[in-house]
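Support request, please re-run this one:
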Amino acid sequence: METVDRMMAGEFILCWLGFFSSVECKLENRFYHKTCPQVEKIIANSVNNSLLLHPRLAAGLIRLQFHDCFVNGCDASILLDTTPSGEPVEKTAKANGFSNKILECVDQVKADVERECPGVVSCADILAYSAREAVVQDGLPHYPVRGGRRDGVSSSAKDVVGNLPSPSDSVKTMAELFVRKGMSVEDLVALSGAHSIGHTHCKHLHKRLYNYSSTQAQDPSMDLAHYLSLKSSCPKPGALSKEVADKLMVPLEPSTPLRLDTVYYTQLLNGKGVLQSDQALTNDPTTSGIVERFAQNPSQWAAGFTDAMIRLGKVDVLTGQEGEVRRNCRAVN
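Re-run finished. Output below.
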């Protein structure tokens, strides 16, 4: 405890001297060490219990934090079902669409925390801690998450437009988006490695498979066997009823679909990326070298990924007296 207290005192001095950014000084290690000292343990246990039952939730928890932070900052606005304005909320936007199981997992984590420390821990911090536990459970090292985020009181579906990457985006478009959020091209490539787990809907692949350009039906950068495999899993639009077609999904990296690893990057180098935006990382000179480096150095990617997750958790946060600490993550107080 004495060592930790010295570390916190040292961080205070560095903030006062201006060596740390304002966000790093507003967010704190062990933010809840007096008000809810067991919070990280409670969240870890709650998330791990959910993942034991539903291992695929890990990808959703990581994606949930990313989608929250890139739209008006890490304020848990993506969790709101309604707001006082009555307008459609972020989670209803086309680019989102999270399963009930993922949202119910967060509800359970919040309930577990509230039992121990009612009205203390924000939903925004719960998202950051939960994403960290998902990362650790799927194979990467534990990393520190600072606390002190506050919850937003507004959420609008229209704010999602232009603030999240799409499956068909170019590297230039994605890189510009990351820079706007205070992140780097290296962060873009590192966080894309989250696609080593999880699934995507077939509708996001139809253009690559069946209508790539006016002269080519399929994306020519795709490995042929990979193309045929995806084509068999994702029939041509119109071949099935819309209700059935909308439910079809494929793994983003089928070799190790429940493990965060660098197989994803190796597959990209072999022309076996699933999303067009992923495969584009190997075709653009600004990112191809980073893909090769991560494919060859798993430990370097692991460090890059966790560092990028730390930076993600600092995007446009609310702190101090801004926002609120929600009692229910789905509704403002």
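DSSP finds 15 helices and two strands in the chain. The radius of gyration is 20 Å.
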